[in-house]
Design brief:
It is found in: Mitochondrion. The protein contains 11 helices and 23 strands. By secondary structure, it is α/β, with parallel strands linked by helices.
């Protein structure tokens, strides 16, 4: 333990979390600070491109295509501590790891992501983990493969898809799987024997009106039954019964199923839930939604899914947040006023299918005040070009741009094409 303390005694910047936001900010700051100044702490050995999981469920990508060894992604000049944080002591500028070591820092960036909480729905974890049970979720890698297997083997019946009442990473994913299921069932020639039901806790199918209107056309065209304000509360995998709570009147509704895809509840990771000094009442890191600096500790920043910023929790949001944290953290280190504000940008490529004419995407890009579209065409209209971006360009951008700290989001591109948008109007 003493040797670990000596080794990391001069930790200028500690990055907690080795996902997309952690690797991205570690890469950026390693290029700004003297060699050896940045330490990244995370125990994960395998890194997944999580936006690809929907395409795994569609059979358009393999899990292997979305997987890399974490050791190959650690930025040059960054110390990687293969540990997990057991406790934060922000008052002492320190963290304690699970092996009992203490790491002191001058500045810290929290990139801990969020935790998939199958345990928050009675019976869900057991049903998902049972390979013989037709319940799955694409939010965990190997169950994305299970989802694809089930969609290619079940011949008929009720197919249920759910969206939870908690914050969730990639809020569009639960309905993407619904559209993918419709596509697969039509391709197999069994769609007429299947009834599709999408249960969401929201009052409409999508938060941004422009895209909600476009998606409702898809729902009607494909004969998908939409149930708003319903939360999944219990899964009886043995008897194939899902229990929902009607959030408007607290009544319960039971639905039989032959296939169930759950958009699982999510929460902050447990160590943050146990650190109220850093978080809000719900366990999310409490930050300024503009500067991404902690509201409680001036030498702490956070980005990605772990924060309480009001934006959708997507990889696209991280790209814009990286730019803000890089500039503001550098300003803090240099004793200067902050020079950047996060604009709330997020994006959700809504996959409508992956085969033939149904290989289309509605490319939703939005911020707090509505759409923030990058291209000089109506992105609420389903298109193959947007599907191509989702399938081929975005994975490339992730592996070679985002996690290496080179991609700051499409704001510059939006400014360049702005004249084309005006001409279009």
């Amino acid at each position: 333990m003493r040797s670990s303390r000596r080794l990391l005694a001069n930790c200028r910047l500690l990055v907690v979390g080795g996902g997309s936001s952690g690797l991205g900010i570690a890469s950026k700051m390693a290029r700004r600070l003297p060699k050896g100044s940045v330490t990244l702490i995370d125990s994960i050995q395998t890194h997944y491109y999580q936006p690809g999981f929907t395409l795994v469920s569609a059979g358009a990508m393999t899990l292997e295509q979305n997987r890399r060894k974490q050791k190959d992604l650690i930025p040059t000049g960054v110390k990687w501590l293969e540990q997990r944080v057991k406790a934060f002591q922000p008052q002492a500028n320190a963290v304690t790891t699970e092996d009992g070591s203490t790491i002191e820092y001058d500045y810290m960036v929290l990139c801990t992501g969020m935790e998939i909480r199958l345990d928050m729905v009675e019976g869900l974890a057991e049903s998902v983990k049972d390979e013989s049970c037709p319940v799955s979720t694409i939010y965990l890698p190997h169950f994305a493969e299970k989802t694809n297997r089930l969609l290619n083997t079940i011949e008929k019946g009720n197919f249920l898809f759910t969206f939870p009442s908690t914050p969730i990473k990639c809020a569009g994913a639960p309905q993407k799987v619904c559209y993918i299921a419709d596509d697969i069932l039509r391709t197999r020639g069994v769609r007429s024997a299947c009834s599709l039901h999408y249960y969401t806790t929201l009052p409409r199918i999508f938060g941004v009106e422009k895209y909600a209107n476009a998606l409702m056309k898809v729902v009607k065209e494909r004969d998908i039954n939409l149930h708003t304000r319903h939360a999944l509360k219990k899964v009886d995998g043995k008897n194939r019964i899902a229990t929902f709570e009607n959030l408007d009147n607290s009544s319960t509704v039971e639905a039989e199923f032959d296939f169930l895809h759950a958009g699982p509840p999510c929460s902050p990771v447990s160590v943050l839930r146990n650190t109220p000094s850093l978080t809000d009442a719900n366990g999310w890191v409490d930050v300024s939604c503009q500067t991404l600096q902690s509201t409680k500790f001036s030498n702490v920043f956070a980005l990605g899914d772990c924060t309480n910023t009001p934006n959708a929790k997507t990889a696209a949001a991280i790209s814009s947040q990286l730019k803000t944290v890089e500039k503001n953290l550098s300003d803090a280190i240099d004793g200067k006023p902050f020079s950047s504000q996060y604009d709330g940008y997020a994006s959700c490529p809504l996959v409508l299918g992956a085969s033939g004419k149904r290989a289309q995407v509605i490319l939703a890009e939005f911020g707090p005040n509505g759409p923030m579209e990058s291209f000089p065409f109506n992105q609420s209209k389903p298109s193959y070009f947007s599907f191509w971006l989702k399938r081929y360009f975005m994975p490339f951008l992730y592996w070679h741009g985002l996690i290496k700290g080179y991609w700051n989001g499409p704001s510059l591109f939006r400014r360049i094409v702005a004249p084309l948008k005006k001409n279009q109007k």
